[in-house]
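Researcher: I'd like a candidate sequence for this fold, 374 residues long. If you have to choose between options at a position, lean toward the conservative one.
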């Protein structure tokens, strides 16, 4: 955020603080008691996103937590613990990171260091932890990608992997992304699918449920939040899993969106509702809103971004089936999108690169405050 934006945001905070104190808005219009209460909750320096989320019983998650800043940047952990109710490791629990070897056939093949550290931090901060992810087509270890396993061996590999990790974190991870983006690639490019076939999905859910019956098990997909061919395929697949008696508790909508391609709110709500009608929960698991996809002033981009964050927060609050909203990253400084888009100007999250709250942060707070006071 440049100096001008910082000044604007400071003036905004000051005006709202005066409003909260006097009951008058910036035009001098008297606010109702409810409006004054909302202003206090939105701008009150001691009222955090987390404290508001607790009041309405929704999980506000810090997802995509990067390992390097987790260890090296003290402000990173501070803001996570202050503002969020749950944490999702960005990479620490992925196959290639947590199970890098296949030499011994036991726990010596695993590296739990970073996942353990994040769990201990989250528990010390009284936060929940979402496990991400048990089976995905990316970030797998070389021994799996290049292994020459037959179907029976691959099923054993996947079963050992899932049972080892899920039982280690039994009763400590509240939800698992069991399969991640199963529709997003031609399956032939992942060894577990190639060798096992589509049955890897029900098998993965079974192994996870048997390892921790208390964990919520999710099918996590990207670009499947609107009503379209892809979300229809997700819907059809989870219907089939339920018909087969598979224990699946919910669908994760990753919600990687942009100013150029914002979510269709009516369709997202309908999509959530139809999943809820199956008895499933919906979590928004990885929300970020790319800003550098339209030509406009930074101030205008941040306002448009804030509207999208606020609108999705409201949809989730209005749809009982939606019980969690997590962003993928907490500060623009470490967003995966900077590297992915090769654009250091990307500002996709709630806090800027200097950990200052952006309009999006206040938009999310405002929607929660409005829900709480309505
Ligand atoms: O750890 C190595 C490091 O040792 C090495 O020096 C460095 C060299 O580039 O790479 C590091 O690994 C990187 C890893 O993040 C940890 O920082 C990988 O290259 C990089 O590809 C990996 O990116 C992750 C990406 O998934 C992989 O596709 C992002 O951090 C992570 O946020 C992102 O998350 C995914 C979700 O899991 C699923 N949904 C989509 C989302 C965005 O792609």
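Model: Candidate sequence:
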């Amino acid at each position: 955020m440049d100096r001008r934006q910082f000044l604007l945001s400071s003036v905004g905070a000051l005006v709202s603080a005066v409003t909260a104190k006097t009951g008058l808005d910036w035009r001098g219009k008297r606010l109702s008691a409810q409006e004054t209460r909302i202003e206090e909750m939105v701008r009150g320096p001691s009222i955090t996103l987390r404290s508001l989320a607790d009041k309405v019983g929704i999980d506000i998650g810090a997802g995509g937590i990067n390992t390097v800043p987790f260890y090296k940047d003290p402000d990173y952990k501070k803001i996570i613990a202050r503002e969020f109710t749950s944490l999702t490791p960005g990479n620490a629990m992925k196959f290639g990171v947590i199970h890098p070897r296949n030499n011994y056939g036991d726990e010596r093949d695993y590296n739990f260091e970073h996942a353990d550290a994040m769990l201990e931090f989250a528990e010390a901060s009284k936060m929940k932890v979402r496990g991400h992810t048990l089976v995905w087509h990316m970030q797998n270890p070389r021994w799996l990608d290049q292994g020459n396993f037959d179907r029976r061996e691959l099923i054993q590999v996947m079963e050992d992997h899932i049972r080892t990790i899920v039982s280690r974190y039994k009763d400590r991870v509240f939800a698992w992304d069991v399969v991640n983006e199963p529709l997003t690639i031609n399956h032939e490019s992942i060894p577990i699918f190639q060798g096992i076939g589509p049955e890897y999905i029900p098998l993965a859910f079974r192994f996870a449920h048997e390892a921790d019956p208390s964990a919520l098990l999710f099918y996590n997909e990207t670009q499947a939040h609107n009503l379209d061919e892809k979300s229809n395929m997700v819907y059809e697949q989870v219907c089939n899993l339920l018909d087969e008696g598979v224990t699946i508790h919910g669908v994760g909508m990753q919600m990687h969106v942009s100013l150029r391609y914002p979510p269709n709110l009516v369709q997202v709500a309908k999509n959530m509702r139809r999943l809820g009608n199956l008895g499933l929960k919906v979590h928004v698991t990885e929300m970020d809103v790319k800003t550098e996809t339209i030509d406009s002033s930074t101030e205008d981009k941040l306002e448009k971004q804030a509207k999208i964050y606020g609108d999705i927060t409201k949809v989730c609050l209005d749809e009982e089936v939606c019980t969690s909203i997590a962003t993928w990253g907490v500060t623009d400084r470490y967003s995966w999108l900077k590297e992915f888009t090769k654009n250091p100007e990307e500002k996709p999250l709630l806090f800027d690169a200097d950990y200052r709250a952006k309009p999006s942060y206040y938009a999310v707070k405002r929607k929660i405050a409005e829900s709480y006071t309505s």
